[in-house]
Amino acid sequence: MNPPASALETSLRNFDESRIHSLVVGMRVDVADHRSEVPVHQHRMGQLVLALQGGVSCEVPGSVWVVPPRCAVWIPGGMPHCVRATANARICYLFVQPGAAALPARCCTLSISPLVQALILDMAVQARDYAEDSPTGRKAVVLLEELARMPVEQLFLPISDEPRVGRIAKMLADDPADRRTLAEWGRLVAMSERSLARLVRQETGMSFGRWRQQLHLIVALRLLAGGQAVTRVADQLGYESTTAFITMFKKALGKPPARYFAERDPWGGTTTPST
């Protein structure tokens, strides 16, 4: 017997984009008290995934993108992807007609202003068959103009179909605290340290150390957004101290975790990570 469909999957099953002719339509989904996932799928329309609460990530060919609060992942139309959310996440989808806005042709994470977030939330409660010259239609035009101005953030992890790199990535994702050296990983996959270093850079565009740190950052953002304390996240990632983890986080994103999340939630709708 197949497991019951998740809230995320059910919401998309009930969305018939072939009947949508408006520029943009919105949809809000609240996840229950367990993790939720939408298997790999694709849409004709472009899709924006906005995280209102909890940890959300999107996997597309070649990379995994994280969606912290006040950010959204943009997925161009026709791109296969899957969406994962932590327990009790709150998500807003925005579907955009092809060519309706000057949005990137590739998947990316966009920083979302309070104005754009408010417009997206408003669109999620509007009828989907509005006229272009209606109040909703005019707000849709403003939303698309503002959305195209949102800055891109590099909150993604390159992934690879190369078997040896893929094996290491899976093992690190299963146990982010694994601190094996590059030489030890090389012995595991029957490669020299130098050859593995070249392969990782070739497949991901990053050094092994930078790639592993980016994996830690992606995992940390998802866990912190899901409500876990900074000390627990630091321990799960194998850091010797909470201070060392905070230093890594601040170096990568410019702010310590508590400040990063507090500044991304000016209305107090998301829990700021505790220490």
UniProtKB/TrEMBL annotation:
Keyword Signal found: no
Residue ranges of every copy of the HTH araC/xylS-type domain listed in the record: 166-263
Record has Transcription regulation as a keyword: yes
Keywords noted in UniProt: DNA-binding, Repressor, Transcription, Transcription regulation
InterPro entries: Homeodomain-like_sf (IPR009057), HTH_AraC (IPR018060), RmlC-like_jellyroll (IPR014710), RmlC_Cupin_sf (IPR011051)
GO molecular function, one term: DNA-binding transcription factor activity
Protein name per its UniProtKB record: AraC family transcriptional regulator
Lineage: Bacteria, Pseudomonadati, Pseudomonadota, Betaproteobacteria, Rhodocyclales
